[in-house]
């Protein structure tokens, strides 16, 4: 049976971690006697992932689990679902899907049908292959306070005229990781989730400081700019992460539809690279890049009243409504 982790609450209570199976949930605290640790909050639970993972695997295999959920599980619809992680650090890998980089190259200058389009396409292909062969992931930090729930409203202020979406696969670290070899990187993953890396395009580069480079604080880190969840799917439930498919719909229209195998630097390469720069800790969240179809391609950015649905097949999907109110 496939079990996923969720972070839930009832009324105004503090969110607590639970297991979800076939639309029914049971709090992880139910299995404290089996040895689960840190069951009061998701952050504490992930801090104890090294011991908790083996117990979760045993629960997954237990024949009694189906009966337990059927008889004692509560309907998930009776709960509020919150972000399934509370990371100390959030890392975002930039420009990591071939499709997105090719689309941006073709959209530039005289456009995809212009006389220079073929030249730009060839140059982009050459740059991508060179970077894949000799380069390293480009990773920025995003404020952890930007993490929000999968159904929380997204506040859009009047000046946010270029607020863009980026559906991505989120990777949650389960074990401390330092100088990890790519071949062993999957061993450090607790699980996967859906993220939408909201980005204010016109603040990526500061007009008043054109030589200072990118400003990820202003462009990515405001409260609510990383809807996350609804599920945290344990790593062992995903047979091949390269087959995961992120997608996004805006007001019901499909805008993004990608596949992880299109990444320039795969998930294992990203973890390996990051572990040479920082010491990854349990609960840390890696946003692994976005496929083609972001708002800047369409010339259409988020507006008040928009409904944004982002998902990854096998990891669930979120639904966020854009509002003018700040929560």
Query: What percent of residues adopt helix (DSSP H or I)?
Result: 10-25%
**What name does CATH use for the topology of the largest domain?**
Fumarylacetoacetate hydrolase, domain 2
Helical element count?
8
The low-confidence parts are none
CATH class value of the largest domain: Alpha Beta
The biggest sheet, with number of strands, parallel, antiparallel or mixed sense and barrel status, is: 6 strands, mixed
The run of helices and strands is: EEEHHHEEEHHEEEEEEEHEEEEHEHEE
**Structural category:** alpha+beta
Shape: globular
- Strand fraction band? 25-35%
What is the CATH homologous superfamily assignment of the largest domain?
Answer: Fumarylacetoacetase-like, C-terminal domain
**What Rg, in angstroms, do the CA atoms define?**
20 Å
Terminus-to-terminus distance: 38 Å
The CATH architecture name of the largest domain reads Alpha-Beta Complex
This entry's quaternary arrangement is single chain
The chain-level mean pLDDT equals 96
Spatial strand sequence of the major β-sheet: 7-6-18-11-12-15
In total, the number of domains comes to 3
Could you tell me the number of beta strands? 20
Family: Belongs to the FAH family.
InterPro entries: FAH, Fumarylacetoacetase-like_C, Fumarylacetoacetase_C_sf
Protein name: FAA hydrolase family protein
Keywords: Hydrolase, Metal-binding
């Amino acid at each position: 049976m496939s079990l996923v982790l969720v972070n839930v609450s009832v009324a105004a209570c503090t969110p607590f971690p639970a297991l979800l199976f076939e639309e029914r949930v049971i709090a992880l605290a139910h299995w404290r006697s089996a040895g689960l640790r840190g069951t009061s909050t998701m952050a504490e639970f992930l801090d104890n992932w090294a011991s908790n993972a083996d117990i979760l695997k045993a629960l997954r295999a237990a024949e009694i689990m189906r009966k337990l959920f059927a008889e004692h599980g509560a309907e998930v619809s009776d709960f509020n679902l919150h972000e399934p992680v509370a990371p100390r650090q959030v890392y975002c890998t930039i420009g990591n899907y071939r499709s997105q980089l090719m689309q941006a190259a073709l959209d530039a200058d005289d456009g995809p049908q212009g006389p220079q389009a073929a030249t730009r396409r060839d140059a982009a292909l050459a740059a991508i292959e060179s970077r894949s062969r000799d380069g390293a992931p480009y990773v920025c930090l995003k404020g952890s306070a930007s993490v929000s729930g999968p159904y929380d409203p997204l506040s859009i202020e009047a000046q946010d005229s270029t607020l863009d979406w980026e559906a991505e696969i989120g990777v949650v670290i389960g074990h401390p990781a330092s100088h990890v070899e790519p071949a062993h990187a999957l061993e450090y993953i607790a699980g996967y989730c859906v993220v939408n890396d909201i980005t204010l395009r016109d603040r990526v580069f500061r007009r008043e400081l054109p030589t200072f480079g990118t400003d990820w604080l202003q462009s990515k880190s405001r409260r609510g700019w990383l809807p996350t969840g609804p599920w945290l799917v344990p790593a062992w439930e995903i047979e091949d992460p390269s087959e995961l498919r992120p997608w996004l719909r805006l007001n019901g229209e499909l805008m993004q539809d990608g596949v992880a195998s299109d990444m320039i630097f795969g998930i294992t390469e990203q973890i390996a690279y990051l572990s040479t720069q920082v010491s990854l800790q349990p609960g840390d969240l890696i946003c692994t890049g976005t496929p083609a179809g972001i708002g800047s391609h369409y010339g259409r950015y988020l507006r008040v009243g928009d409904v944004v649905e982002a998902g990854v097949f096998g990891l669930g999907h979120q639904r966020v409504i854009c509002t003018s109110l700040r929560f």
